[in-house]
Fold this protein.
Amino acid sequence: MNIDKIRKDFPLLSQNINGKDLIYLDSAATTQKPRVVVDAIAQYYSEYNSNIHRGVHSLSQKATNEFENAREVVQQFIGAEHPHEIIFTSGTTGSINLVAATWGRQNISAGDEVLISAMEHHSNIVPWQLICDEKGAHLKTIPMNEMGELELRGLDSLLSHKTKIVALSHISNSLGTINPIRKVIKQAHNNGALVLIDGAQSVAHTPIDVVDLGADFFAFSGHKLFGPTGIGVLYGKESVLNDMPPYKGGGNMIKSVTFEKTIYNDLPHKFEAGTPNIVGGIGLSSAIEYVKDIGFDFITDQETKLKTAATEMLKSIPGVRIFGEADQKASVISFNLEGLHPFDVGTILDQLGIAVRTGHHCTQPVMDFFQIPGTVRVSFSFYNNMEDIAALKRGLMKAKSMLSV
Amino acid sequence: MTIKEAEDEIVSEFALFSDWMEKYEYIIELGKEMPIIDEAHQTEKNLIPGCQSRVWLHAEHLNGKIVFTANSDAIITKGIISLLIRILSNQRAEDILDAELLFIKEIGLTDHLSPTRSNGLVSMVKQMKNFAFAFSNA
């Protein structure tokens, strides 16, 4: 694999921003799209755009086949047993809300507990707060330490017969911590709780096998996996999904409707009311094929190199403080420059063509934990190279000299 | 000085800068110099809800004019606020309400004031106008 050749697969990367070469260090927010994905989207609209399911004409058949094929591509990619365990949603947020609203409404009662962690994204906090408030249940959190690692020693005491579900991120979007989800899943199951894994930050970086992990639910977004926005996936175990009531009502999710009674459709359609994001599914499928071609061996190797080099570079700059120094960490690095506001640093970097994210990264409790208003976050994908890290260093030195009092 | 005159003055100052760096260095300088808001006024109540940098804005009605003081924890935000204060502070409520603030576009800061930039500056202009509206009806 040649990184220069790979970079050419991503049309957006070869452009100027504010007159400078773009240095894209915000892949944890969204990844760039390879040409094959852009082409697949264009091809759908220019050649076989049509509404799926129940269509008798050829275009509808073709679109239906491609969309259902996408489901199988996702199924194989994450190691699910059946294609109908793959529910297409709008994204990770949509997936978690679906579980909280349907499974939660059916299974969580007054006095029950939902367990999340101290480093969750708001989208894995708020849906659970909503259902807990509605039911009179309690939201509890697994604490973390100063390194940004979960404190699992007390996990057994946090889990009880009241714990109905544990919802945990695989990789923290603001700290980069890779959580020991296998261990948590095992302990939760021993206590009779189900487990939802928020895979938004992991699915593009590490191979996933949901059966091997034993997760009851696994949620991720297409756009963080080189696919389009507006498409996401909820994996659920067949037995669990079958017992869940539907989420939204409408077309496609029914078998028969009378004014007296509606019989719901089978999986996965029960959870896919209305016309789904057809082109999103097709684009995601082509993104997954692209990732498979690149291969996780290369991806992991490249991202580990980038993470190591970037961490060393940051530590060489006086006044840099890194937030999240877990032993097991992905290529997401949050930091601040002493005395400087992350917003100011991000603004100067933007003028230099360097795209980073600043702020609380939708993890305000994490920022409160470290008592900071926010951080500068850089995140790498396999299409980044060492020149990006050198450019970041030059940018940070420039920001430091301009902003320091 | 009228609002328009103050805007013109700032536009001509910015015309001297040849690149973005000089412009930002100037804004950063303004951010460092700007008189800090009276501590008693840097309160939760005066905090403008913006996403990234925190902005405090206080307004007083003095001799028929509105006097603004403000602060931010981000220096670039503070610099841009100081431009807004230079233009809108010590003006009559009705003039503040009528201000179009065309200088923002002319000095190339539109990006900073577009609603998609979550730095609270849009909310800040809105809040200044809200104060003016409240005082004009007082």
In short: The two ends of chain A are 46 Å apart (CA to CA). Chain A touches chain B at residues 18, 340-344, 347-348, 351, 358-359, 373-374, 402-403, 405 (CB under 8 Å). The first helix of chain A runs from residue 3 to 8. The mean pLDDT of chain A is 97.
